[in-house]
Specification:
By secondary structure, the chain is α+β, with helices and mostly antiparallel strands. The chain has one domain. It has helices at about 5-20, 50-55, 90-95, 100-105, 130-140, 150, 180-185, 205-215, 235-245; strands at about 1-5, 25, 30-35, 40, 45, 110, 120-125, 175-180, 220, 230-235. The radius of gyration is 17 Å and the shape is globular. The structure holds zinc ion. Zinc ion binds near residues 172 and 177. It comes from Paracoccus liaowanqingii. GO terms for molecular function: peptidase activity. This is M15 family peptidase.
């Protein structure tokens, strides 16, 4: 059994993907997307299954099931499994980015900001990720706010690895994610919480840092039920989708 996605939401999700990744195309039937005009990826539906089950292999549309909150509001994350951005369709990411570690490695560059020396991250140049991060760091450095503690001992960017406790490839593998200071950011698994029953998130990451990075296409894991407060990830389609819905 499947749950029909409201047509306007499905259209908004596809529109957001097309704006975010301008070489994506929609198949003539409007139900699939692709990059080369022949290998189409079905956008699927939002299936009637538990959030935990869909997490292991979500459809493309299920990635948009819970709109990413544009406001700096951490109340939505108190709802179990409301993790906007944590659902990722592996075939879409392989198509948008890389299928092998070597291909990912060949695209890497280290982004640094002279006025914010603690911030230095190896990310991909593909899809302007490095450019966007560089611009965001420059803006943070120019803001006058002292972010040095947030970037002190930062966890880093590219890392070809699976997500802790899973067999799913982390988005650090594609060079589209980076972690700030882990101690300040905090991670749900380290609290001893059970999946789907994560308690309060005692956040110290400043709103100004999050909103600046969001403006350049990076979502923040602190807005997830399964919070990953050190984690930022290039997902402009999720931010665009929320903007389209809020119009
Ligand atoms: Zn991370």
């Amino acid at each position: 059994m499947t749950v029909a996605v409201p047509q306007n939401s499905a259209t908004a999700a596809i529109d957001a993907l097309l704006i975010a990744y301008d070489d994506l195309q929609v198949a003539p039937d409007g139900r699939a997307i692709g990059l080369d005009g022949k290998d189409w990826l079905d956008v699927g539906t939002i299936r009637d299954m538990s959030a935990k089950a869909s997490l292991s292999d979500p459809t493309i549309l299920e990635q948009f099931k819970h709109p990413y909150p544009l406001a700096f509001d951490l109340t939505q994350r108190t709802v179990p499994f409301v993790d906007p951005g944590r659902l990722r369709n592996a075939r879409l990411f392989e198509a948008l980015y890389f299928q092998t570690e070597q291909a990912a490695r060949n695209s890497l560059v280290t982004v640094t900001e002279p006025a914010l020396p603690q911030a230095s991250f190896q990310v991909t140049q593909k899809r302007n990720v490095a450019c966007q991060l560089s611009a965001a760091l420059a803006e943070l450095a120019a803001s006058g706010t002292d972010y040095s503690a947030i970037f002190q001992g930062a966890g880093g960017g590219f890392n070809w690895r699976v997500i802790a406790g899973t067999t799913r490839l982390s988005t650090h593998s594609y060079g589209i994610a980076f972690d700030v200071n882990a101690e300040l950011g905090k991670y749900w698994l380290w609290t001893g919480a059970k999946e789907g029953a994560v308690g309060a998130y005692d956040n110290v990451i400043p709103e100004s840092l999050v909103t600046t990075l969001e403006r350049f296409g990076f979502i923040w894991g602190g807005k997830w039920h399964h919070f990953d407060g050190m984690h930022f990830e290039y997902r402009p389609e999720l931010i665009l989708y929320s903007r389209i819905l809020s119009q």
